[in-house]
Write a structure and sequence with these properties.
With 390 residues, chain A is an alpha+beta fold. Chain A is built from 13 helices and 18 strands. Chain B has 9 helices and 14 strands. Chain B has a 7-stranded mixed sheet with strand order 3-4-2-1-5-6-7, with helices on both faces. A 7-stranded mixed sheet of chain B has the order 9-8-11-10-12-13-14, sandwiched between helices. Classes of the chains: A alpha+beta (390), B alpha/beta (297). Chains A and B meet through helix 9 and helix 13 of A and helix 4 and helix 5 of B.
Chain lengths: 390, 297
């Protein structure tokens, strides 16, 4: 689960990591009054959306007067910000973060992340602050410093000192840097984050370390024990179809093709999408109905897939283990009736109770296109688009 | 014969008396799995499905000699159950739960350092050795005894590949699901190593997906250490970056995480890569046919 920059900075503050004075605003008037309250003569106005690359897209701007702060906020709030990560539709900006502008001397990169390969937590730092770390890894891999953390004892002072020295922090800044690294680690570990990033960590005003930007990503599987983090969830940043699917115990991700997919299991669902692409089509979505799917759940899957106006055909691919093909088939037939579905429906059933499932489909008299295996089903789903588009 | 679950294995289930565990315990018993009891804290001393119930894993181990455990506890309690099994000396721990926090797995990885145990999963259908038994939730009727090892992150894609193989008369020595989570207990390399040493396995099918470095790490390892052929597929060529595709671990965070990059790298390292998910069975047959002359020596 992603959160906004202003929320990450609230957490940083709680953990004693220095951040610029500032607050989030939902209106231009609020933005101006926050700027006035902070004081000074220069402010940064930052669009709050779940995406990187905001600076290049015009989502981070400098204001030199309260009027300017107000007018920038007015322009940003309610507009759609298109970054390299949002896709062409961009994201609607609901809030801006108003912060005191800083005089930056130098910028660094600092993050605490899960290393999947080594199954550990690691601290990453670089002297190349302000850049995307993947970009740094390509252009200046030697500037990246990594320190693994032993979860039994946590991140240790000497490790932090080593990292701080390696990225070229002066001796005078070492104690502050060590504190920030340890606090970032503690915040990441306490809150079950998969990633906590400060980019840039800047030296401002001649000798103070401040987190100018913050990004955190949390483990959805740990939210049950983190009520405070759960409150950070912003449904405006999510596809409503995906939110509804989750409520029904379905795993759905909207894509931009025309073949709707209803599959059991994440791996088979991905392979089904891949097979559609190999046959020259494009999947409209990823959808995993999970195990033990009832006819009602299958009906909900149809409803969610069909909310996407681009869907011109649906491919159902079920390899039933703890699922039952007869339940799935009943769900399909029920959905055809209830939802008056007119587009081609390709069905491939295999595994538990497959005979009963096929009988239910046959007896229904609906014109299902039967796929005999994964290849056959995906080929037929793509071929069916021709007729559907005519 | 086979790996991790053999004729000698003595199996217990943790969270034994729950509805989910009971269903799968009955299935396991039906196909001959040597299930010798189970653990449900507070219900020790009783019986369930005709087998003894214990309060703790160490009680179960001393009474039954169990060396394999299937953990059916829900994700919030699974980490504790895993560490209890490690402490009790269980050699193979199969974790079915989907939804264990990543930080719990990081701590478990640290906890088991220096101890001789394997953690299979979490978020796995489990292990099956056809004609011997299963610890898991897979549909056992699709598996047939044979000489192909299979290891996968996904459950249903494992079933798909197995069905393709079984249809061509290619049975399995063992099937291992390493699970769909970002930090799991056992990686592909460990399983490849076990299959390489297993006298009853001729070739290994490795099925990966987007996210993480383990497929390519395993291919690198296989090039240096394996004589048996490895057939590989990676799901998610069509997956968009930055989105979690159902499995917590199936997310593209960098170029190396993509299915295409992984399959290219695996192919470069000598894995027999299948690009079409429907061709996995056929590819296994093709590779075996190529191996035949050498195998008969």
């Amino acid at each position: 689960m992603n959160i906004h920059e202003y929320q990450a900075k609230e957490l940083f503050k709680l953990y004693g990591i220095p951040v610029p004075a500032g607050r989030a605003a939902q209106t231009d008037a609020q933005a101006a009054s926050i700027a006035e309250e902070i004081g000074g003569s220069k402010w940064v106005i930052k669009a709050q959306i779940h995406s990187g690359g905001r600076g290049k897209a015009g989502g981070v701007r400098l204001a030199s007067s309260l009027d300017e702060a107000r007018s920038i906020a007015d322009e940003m709030i309610g507009s759609r910000l298109i970054t390299g990560q949002t896709g062409p539709a961009g994201r609607l900006v609901h809030r801006v973060l108003v912060e005191k502008a800083s005089d930056i001397d130098r910028e660094f990169y600092l993050a605490v992340v899960i290393d999947r390969g080594r199954r550990c937590i690691k601290l990453i730092a670089s002297a190349e602050g302000g850049m995307d770390i993947e970009e740094v890894a390509r252009q200046a891999p030697n500037s990246i410093v990594i320190e693994e953390v032993d979860p039994a004892v946590g991140l240790l002072d000497f490790q932090c000192r080593k990292v701080a020295a390696a990225i070229g922090l002066d001796r005078g800044l070492l104690p502050g840097a060590v504190r920030i690294m340890k606090r970032l680690y503690r915040c990441m570990r306490d809150k079950d984050a998969l990633m906590a990033e400060i980019n840039p960590l800047a030296i401002v005003g001649g000798g103070e370390l401040v987190a100018l930007d913050g990004k955190m990503n949390f483990d959805g599987n740990a939210l049950y024990r983190l009520p405070d983090i759960s409150e950070f969830r912003d449904f405006d940043e999510e596809d409503p179809k995906e939110v509804e699917a989750t409520a029904h115990g379905l795993n759905y991700i909207a894509l931009d093709g025309q073949v709707g997919c209803i599959v059991n299991g994440a791996g088979l669902a991905m392979a089904t999408m891949d097979a559609i692409v190999l046959h020259g089509g494009r999947p409209a979505n990823f959808l995993d109905v999970g195990g033990g799917a009832s006819p009602e759940k299958v009906g909900n899957a149809f409803r969610i897939v069909l909310q996407d106006p681009n869907v011109r055909a649906i491919l159902i691919n079920i390899f039933a283990g703890i699922n039952r093909c007869d339940w799935i088939a009943s769900g399909i037939v029920q959905a055809m009736r209830d939802q008056k579905i007119q587009i081609p429906i390709v069905v491939r059933l295999a595994g538990t109770n497959v005979e009963q499932g096929r009988d239910i489909l046959n007896e229904s008299k609906f014109p299902f296109i039967i796929g005999h295996d994964l290849d056959d089903a995906s080929a037929k789903a793509v071929a069916s688009l021709e007729g559907a588009l005519a | 014969m086979s790996i991790f679950l053999t004729e000698q294995s003595r199996v217990i289930f943790q969270g034994f008396t729950g509805q989910h565990a009971s269903f799968h315990a009955e299935e396991a018993l039906r196909i001959g799995t040597k299930l010798v009891g189970g653990v449900t804290p507070g219900k020790g001393g009783g019986a369930h499905l005709g087998l003894p119930v214990f309060n703790s894993v160490s009680d179960a181990v001393s009474a039954t000699g169990a060396d394999v455990s299937g953990i059916f506890a829900p994700p919030q309690y699974a980490a504790d159950a895993i560490m209890e099994a490690i402490e009790a000396g269980i050699g193979v721990i199969v974790v079915i739960a989907d939804g264990i926090p990543v930080h719990d797995m990081v701590r478990i990885h640290r906890y088991r350092q220096g101890r001789d145990c394997l953690i299979i999963g979490p978020n796995t259908p489990g292990i099956i050795t056809p004609a011997v038994g299963k610890v898991g939730i897979m549909p056992s009727h699709i598996y047939t005894p044979g000489r192909i090892g299979i290891v996968s992150r996904s459950g249903t894609l494992n079933y798909e590949a197995v069905a393709q193989m079984s249809a061509l008369g290619l049975g399995q020595s063992s099937s291992i699901g390493i699970g769909g989570d970002p930090v799991n207990g056992t990686d592909f390399t460990t399983v490849l190593d076990a299959f390489e040493q297993d006298a009853n396995t001729d070739a290994v099918v490795m099925i990966g997906e987007i996210g993480g470095p383990h497929e390519v790490d395993a291919a690198l390892w296989a090039r240096e250490h394996m004589r048996k052929p490895v057939i590989g597929f990676v799901a998610g060529v069509s997956a968009p970056p930055g989105r979690r595709m159902g499995h917590a671990g199936a997310i593209i965070s960098s170029h190396a995480d993509t299915a295409t990059a992984k399959m290219d790298a695996m192919q470069e390292l000598g894995v027999h890569v299948v690009r079409r998910p429907s061709d996995i069975g056929a590819k296994v047959a093709e590779v075996l046919a190529l191996q035949k002359p050498a195998a008969t020596v």
